[in-house]
Amino acid sequence: MPYRRSGALYSAMASIVFCSTVVMNAPASATDGYFQNGYGMKSIGMGGVSYALSSGGMNGANNPASASFAESQVDLGVYLFSPDRGAQRSGNAYGLNGSVTSGDSLFAIPEIGLLYHLNDTWSTGLTVYGNGGMNTTYPGGQIPANTCGLGAPASNLLCGQGKLGVNLNQVIIAPTLSYKAASNFSVAVAPQLLAQQFSASGLQAFSGYSAAPADLTNRGASYSYGAGLKFGAFWVASPLVTLGLTYQTEISASKFSNYSGLFAAPLHVPANLGFGVSLHPGSSLTLAADFERIFYGDVRSIANQSSSASPLGTINGPGFGWSSINIFKVGVSYVLSPSWTVRAGYNYSDNPISTRNVTFNILTPAVVQHHASVGATYQLDAKTQLTVAYNHAFQQTMSGATSPLLPGGGTDRIRLSEDEVGLAIAYHF
Fold first, then answer.
1. Is the entire prediction scored with pTM above 0.70?
2. Phi and psi angles of residue 36, each rounded to the nearest 5 degrees, phi first
3. pLDDT at 15 over 60
């Protein structure tokens, strides 16, 4: 391998290892549940479609088999993510009412990918990406002193003290190996190596419902690790039609030891299945559509009903009541000139949260369903591309009866909207 190519490869590897620590500390967007709605700037600009498109260095997050049909390259990007989330309670007989908006409304999230063709048959790569995450940081003091109990100080919306919220970050390192079985067909596997970080605060009022109250809240950052596999197939059926299929196993994770009194089970990453088709009716136009299913309902820590009578931190204890969801994505790209390509897309996601679980999901108000995006790529030179993307998740609200764990009844309401804008550079070597 020539020295210049080797140097570029090693420099990219060093950047990926360094930047993975940055991804770990940046909460990812909560669009399709808590998964991102797209991985890679080109995908984000097309509504998140990716399964039947060449993903370049981001193949390990999308369809790893697409690696066989992209050029050797390194992708480096970052997007700014700004969520607007809030919660409100009204009609509580004991005065546990209030309204609050979360702070921490701007996050910088990097993306890193590398793809290299070993020969005409085998391709390899490495993708580091934020799989998903959630952050809420509500200030305390909405409920007046003595309202949550005699002598209780001014409290947050869940009757705890101080700030209320959670912070979940998930980073996945995905090495890829793709095999081109025919000139128009490839299969691939990408191990998904998970590191995740979690913290929670302001949940003191639930200590009496926890099997391990000392490990329920305000325990700082806790870490968990796990592994799974993503499989992919990519078929260029004709010059007009390309098909893609992926399946990611559940990523089994270790427990958050600092929060054994909160979670019913380890916070595994749910399995997900995706299918995509892209159409190429001309040399300039590409139309694409994806279907994805995320199996949140199979992960106890997420899926257990928040009304469960078992203690927090036990296998049947309360969770967030999330259901598995279906996601539909459509996107279009058009080559305006040798220098410019433009994109647009739309993403619809089921809501994983039901009305009877709204109170616990004040912590995780992942209720957005409609997303619209635009993007563009500029060819700087023969080897270098610059891509920008913008995505907006339209505000969604949900209301439900206040949990019986808080006395006095009432109605809880949560809301979420999101904006993200990103920039990425791809260097082909």
1. yes
2. -70, 150
3. no
